[in-house]
Amino acid sequence: MIGDRRGTVALEAAIVISLAMAVTLGTLQLGLMSWTKAGLQATAAITARCLGIGSTACTGSNTGPGFAVTTSKRFLGSTSTAITTGNVTVTTATTCSSAPGHYVKVAITSNLWLTNNLWTNSSFLGSTLPKTITVTACYTTAIT
């Protein structure tokens, strides 16, 4: 009888530990996704402001998209490959959402957190989680 109980306890422990690991790893992955999105949002806001005020830090050879890539490394790590200049879209002399005026709008799209098809092969998570992270930021410019 004692031997039977040990097997049951081991089976129950295995089930509980595997469920706890799944919940823990899922929470960690969602936290990393949120952290990446916050870093990209800050990057978009700083880039839009830099372009909006006409700073020399984001003109010349270091254009808006190049400045955004450099800035993203401050938030996401110096070796981050979350975005390239192709992931950054800068639009000038436009409205922002429905607000009239002259703005610089920076949009950044990244799918870094989906590397190696981690979630896309899952039937549940692949259909409920977004495939990409997209952030936008606007900064007003002088009216001309």
Descriptive overview:
The chain is an alpha+beta fold and 144 residues long. The chain has one domain. Helix content is 48%, strand content 20%. The chain is built from 3 helices and 3 strands; from the N terminus they run H-H-E-E-H-E. The chain has helices spanning 2-53, 64-76, 125-128, and strands spanning 88-96, 99-110, 133-140. Strands 1-2-3 form a 3-stranded antiparallel beta sheet, covered by helices on one side. Strand 1 and strand 2 (99-110) form a beta hairpin. Helix 1 packs antiparallel against helix 2 (64-76). The model has no long low-confidence stretch (mean pLDDT 80).
Helix and strand sequence: HHEEHE
Oligomer: single chain
Q: Low-confidence segments, ≥5 residues, pLDDT <50?
A: none
Whole-number tally of structural domains:
1
Query: Which percent range fits the helix content?
Result: 40-55%
Rg over C-alpha atoms, rounded to the nearest angstrom: 22 Å
N/C terminus separation: 87 Å
Biggest sheet record: 3 strands, antiparallel
Q: Which descriptor suits the 3D outline? A: elongated
Question: Helix/strand/pairing class, anyone?
Answer: alpha+beta
In terms of DSSP E residues, the strand content is: 15-25%
